[in-house]
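Weekly modeling sync, notes
Attendees: AB, CL, MP (scribe)

Item 1: holo prediction request
CL wants a bound-state model with pyridoxal-5'-phosphate before deciding which constructs to order. AB pointed out that an apo prediction alone won't tell us much about the pocket. Agreed to run with the ligand included and paste results into these notes for async review.

Input as submitted:
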Amino acid sequence: MSDPDDKNLRPATKLVQGGRRPEWTGDPRLGGAVVNPPVWRASTILYDNVADLKARGHATHDKLYYGRRGTPTVWALADALTGMEPGAEGTLLYPSGVAANSAGLLALLSPGDHLLMADSAYEPTRAFCDGMLARMGVRTTYYDPLVGAGIAGLIEPETRLIFLESPGSLTFEVQDVPAIVAAARERGVLTLLDNTWATPLLFPALAQGVDVAMMSLTKYAGGHSDVMMGSLTATRAVWPRLRQAAYQLGQAVSPDDCAAVLRGLRTLDVRMARHGANGLAVANWLAARPEVGRVLHPALPGDPGHAIWSRDFTGTSGLLGFTLKGTDDAGRARFIDALSLFGIGFSWGGYESLAVPGDPANIRTATSWTDPDPLVRLSVGLEDPADLIADLAHGFAAL
Ligand SMILES: Cc1ncc(COP(=O)(O)O)c(C=O)c1O
């Protein structure tokens, strides 16, 4: 097996090799190694004697100490994710994507601090700022995700963190991450990016200067709609703060779930290529339909985010939105209810297609969503795109 730390390996190869360290997959006494890091379920770790127990020291994070500190299955997933982000020191795992975002905010902010939060961030992320962070005395200012270098004008003496999400939830604005990161660095402000849409395959966030990259592993990384988890991958300067906070909060994930996410990760490259191609086929077809007002997909040349997307991203995932021209809520419901291949349900990034109504106007505060046409969000899965398009045609027929 190749050296998992080999920096020259390409991303698709790293996805296959990541986390499969010999010390986690094999045992010389058994004379071999298995392909996948086995599921190590543990609370108690046994020591040879008291001296051994005392010598271990609870600062350890990659030696068996106590179940909450992880086992090789957990470390293998964290290691594989770290390997996907050039410039990363380590990865911490959380029970969901929301837990990861909240943990990152909590770890990096203190009473009296100021946070700049993208107006297009996932709604529960905003809820944490307006709820628990506000209660702790952390002030949040929501900013236009398209602010770019203009973010410099919003940085206050107390600003400690800028939170980004690109493309944004429901509305898919593409942020100028390099410009925002440059302004943040100049003022000594940290950046945290929700990179769930792109994953490090399409946007290696730390290489773009971001300090902490977050992913809901529930989506594309897991990829099979059967596991919830989140991750934070961080630079050497920030990672110890995240680790300390996670330990103090007792945040731990199940090794069974880690094995499920690791299995998903192995095929992320091929799945993402198919999600992206299917999503584009659907988006192009939608754009030509008379019932569609606009398609929200940065890989389409007419999209407002296309130029930055082309500059910064190496591909597209399969999550997109579109509006139904001149229809109301009831018409949108008729459209979605008429679909049979697209399931109706939350989350996205699984192998199967999903459709949900989205209402950004109720969520935004720094910007306003004024489009009167109702919005539909599609998570385009791995089905044959011709079948998906035929299904969507049924939806239009029901309008
Ligand atoms: C952009 C984004 N970030 C974070 C999350 C939260 O992830 P989870 O559902 O794993 O808590 C979601 C979930 O939909 C999301 O869309």
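Recorded for review: The pocket of pyridoxal-5'-phosphate is lined by residues 96-98, 122, 165, 169, 194, 196, 216, 218, 228, 230, 347 (CB under 6 Å).
Action items: CL to compare against the apo run; MP to circulate these notes.
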